[in-house]
Amino acid sequence: MSHFSAHPHAVNCFRVFLLLWLTTLTGLAQAQSASTSDNTTTAAQAAVPAPKRQLQALRITEAIKLDGLLDEPIWQQAPIATDFIQNRPNPGPHEKHPTEVRVLYDDANLYVGAIMHDVSQDSIMRELSARDDIGNSDFFGIFLDTYHDQLNGYSFIVSTGGVQVDARYSPAGGEDGNWNAVWDSRTTMRGTDWLCEMRIPYSAIRFSKAPEQVWGLNFMRQRKRDNQAFFWNEVKPAVDGFVNQWGELRGLRDITPPLRLSLTPYVSSYVNHFPYQEQGTRNTSTSFNGGADVKWGINESFTLDATLVPDFGQVQSDNQVLNLSPFEVQFQENRQFFTEGTELFNKGNLFYSRRVGATPIGFDNVSSQLRQGQLGPDGQRRPGEAVVSNPGVTRLLNATKVSGRTKNGLGVGVFNALSNDVYATVRDSVDGRQRDVLTQPFSNYSIMVLDQSLKNNSYVSLINTNVTRWGSTYDANVTGGLFRFANKKNSYAVDGRVVYSRRRGNVFASEKQIDDQNGYKYQVGVSKISGNFTWGLNHGIESDTYNPNDLGILFGNNNISQGVYANYNKYKPFWKVNNLYTYFNLNHSLLYKPTRYQNANVAAGFNTTFTKNFLSVGMDVDANPVTHDYYEPRQYPLGDYFVRLPANANVSGYISSDYRKKLALDVSGGVRWYDTDDRLERARPRRMGYGWSISPRYRVSNQLNFRYNLDWNLKQNQVGYVNGDLDESLPDDAAFRKNYPTDVLLGRRRVLTVTNTLSGAYTFNNRMSLTIRTRHYTSTVNYADFARLGKNGQEVLVDYRRNRDNTFNAFNVDAVYSWWFAPGSQVSIVWKNASSSFLEANEATPLYFDNLNNTINTPHNNNISIKILYYLDYLMIKRRLAS
C-alpha cells in the first residue's frame, strides 16, 4: 500500500467534509454579500490599523482618596477618553452606553477614574471570583506601553465586584496572566452606572527617565450582559498584533522611576499524614519553613527577583496519568516564581521550568546500586539492601532572575538557580546499617536572553541555557537565535530559528560518555499575517543528536518537517452567526537520519458563535495515510524499527453554551477510523478510537459556583510497545528475549481512560476565597495478543502468555483558602489529599466502579499547610517613617 493511500471510508469522509466546508463558506459568503450595507468596511480597510487616539494626563498636587466615588474636583478638570469602539462580537460600531475615562498623575502614582454608563443596575453583571479571574462579570481595564515600542505592555483590569486582574504582553509570551503587581483599586455603583478608581504606583511598572514621555495607551470595557467588549483605540481582529494597536498617553512630565525595593518574607508549616502502618515508621510528620522573595529595581529598566529557600508545597497537584507513549509527560508549571514575568526566558521554547527542582537524575538508578541478596556458606539466603527513602523532587537553595528592557528596545534576561545534593537512603537488611546514595549532585541552572525589538512588530533574539553539575557527570548547554521580520504594513512576515545543543561528560553514575554531544535544529517560515485570509509555509530540521532536555523539553528529534497552512476568518456578524474561523493544514515529516518517510497529515476545521443565543460550535477533521512511528519501538538509533500505523481519519466537534446563564454546558466528541491491518497471518480487528466529554457548570449565586468534567476515551485494538518492559527474571519474558534477542514485543490492546473532575469555589469578597478541586483518573490496559516487531515494520504473532494487563488510578483533592489581607500580603491554608495505585495482571480491572472502590481503599496521603506572606515596600515604609 502506498504511503499516501487511505481507507476509502476515511477518504470519503474527508471529501464529504471538505465539500460541506466549501459549500458552507460559499453560502455564508453569499449571505454576507446580500446583507452588505454602505457602512461595511472592506477587507482591505479591516486589515489597516486604526488611527492612534491621544489623551492628555493631568498632573495633580493634592491627595486623591481611593474610594471609587471620583468626587474630587480635580477629576472634572482632566480630559476625557470616551466613544469606545466595539471589538466583539461585532468589530467596528461605537458604544451606545458611553464610557468616560480620566487619567491623573503625581510624583508616585498614576490614577485612573472611569465611569461606565448603563441602562440599569440589573444590566451590570458582577460575579465575584478569585484574583486574576474575571468570572461572569463586567470589567474595565487600562493598557500601558510605557516604552512605546508597540511590542510590550501591561494591563490592569478591575471587575464590577472589585476583583483585580493584571498581565504583561510581549511577542514571546503573548498575554502573560501569571504576572502580578501590587496596586490598588475601588469600585462603586451609582444609579445606572458603575465607577472604577485605580492607583497604579510607578513601582509596579518600568519606564525611562526622559523628562517628557509618551506611553502607549488603551482602555477596555466589557459589558457581559451582551457579551460585548469595547476598546478606546480600536483594535481590529484582522490586524496582526495587539500592543501596536493602542493609542497614546501624553502630558507625562518630570516623573522619575522610583527605587523599586520590596521584601516578601514567608513562614509556612506542614502536617503530613500517610498510614505506613510499619514498625518504627511514623505515620505523621511536621515541618516548619521560612524564606523570602526579594524584588529590587536595579535601575528604571531592570528588576531583580530572587526567592530564598523557596517553598512550593502549596501549588496545585499535577494531573497524573498513565503514560503509554515513548515520551515523557509535560506537566503544567504552577510555581508562581517560574510563571510570573518569564516571557523573555520562554523565547524559542527552550526553557521548561519544571526541570528546575525536578526529579533527581539518578532517581531510577538507586535499585541498581543496592547490595543484592546472596546465599551464604551455610546455604541460607542473606537479604541485601532495601531503599528507605528516595526523594522525588530536588529542593532549591535559591533562584534569581534579572529582566528588563532598555529605552532602545533591548530586552535582557538572566536566570539562575541552585539546587543542593540529593541523596537516597538505603538500609542493610542484615545489620540495619544505613548509607546514602547520591541521586542528584549540586547543580546550577542558568539562562541568558537578549531580545532586540525592531520596527513593524519584529525582533531578533539570542538565548542560552546552561546546566552545570558538580562531580563526574555531564553538563549541558543550548544556544539559539531567533528572528521575525515583518513589512511596514504588518501584512507579511518571515521568521526562523537556529539552535545548537552541546553536552559533555559521563552518564550519571556511569563511566559511559554522553553519546549526543552536539546537535542542531533550525526552522524557517514565511507567512501572510493580517487580513481575513492568512497563510504560511514552514520547514525545519532537528538532527538525530539534538537534545535540549536538561533545561528544556523535547518530543522526538531526528526529523525533517514541512507544512503549509491557511486560515480564512470572518470577524463581523453575518447570516445567523457572530463570526467564523476556519483553518486548513497540510504537513509532512521525514526521519532525518536515515532519511525515511514518517508521516503526512491533512486537517481542516471551523468554529463559530451564533448571534442570538451565543452558542459556540466547532468541527475538526483530519486524514492520515500510513504512518511509520520510529519512536514507539524504543530502539536507538532510530531507523531500523518502526510501528506501522494504518491510514486513518478523524471527525470531532464541540458545542459550548452561553456562560452568562446560570447553567452552562460544554460537550465534545470524536471518532477515529483506521484502515484494516491484514499483514499478519490473520487479519487484526479494525482499530477504532472514541472519545467524548461533558462539562456542566452551575452558578448558584455571584459568590458560589460549581463545575464538573467527565472525560471518556477508548482506544480499541491499539497496537504498541508493551508497557512495563520485559523482566528477564520471568520465564515468558526470558523465553521471548532468548528467541528474539533484538526484536521488540508489541501488544494489541484495549485502553480505556476515564477522568472525573469536580471543582467548586466560594468567594467571600474580592480578597477572600475558598476553592476545592477533586480529580479521579483511571486508565486500564487489556492486552488481546502479542506480536514480534522486526526490522522494517515486520510483525509476526507470537505465543506470549504472560498477563500484561494493568490499571492505573490517581486521586487528588486540593482545597485552598486564600485571604489577601493587604496589598501583596496573603494567608493561605491548603489541604491536599492524594493516592495512586498501579495494578497488574489479574488485579487489573476495566470496571470503573471497581477502580473507584480500589482508589478509596488505597492509603491516602493527607497534607495540611498554612503559609503567610507579608509584603514590605521600601517606599511605603519610608513615607510612614517620614510622617
From TrEMBL:
Task: Using the record's annotation, list all stretches that form the Carbohydrate-binding domain.
Answer: 67-224
Q: What's one GO BP annotation on this UniProt entry?
A: carbohydrate catabolic process
Q: Does the keyword Protein biosynthesis apply?
A: no
Q: Domain named DUF5916: which ranges?
A: 257-880
Q: Does the keyword Chaperone apply?
A: no
Q: Annotated Gene Ontology MF terms?
A: carbohydrate binding; hydrolase activity, hydrolyzing O-glycosyl compounds
**Keywords for this entry?**
Signal
The stretch of residues making up the signal peptide is: 1-31
Q: What is the lineage of its organism?
A: Bacteria, Pseudomonadati, Bacteroidota, Cytophagia, Cytophagales
Protein name in UniProt: Uncharacterized protein
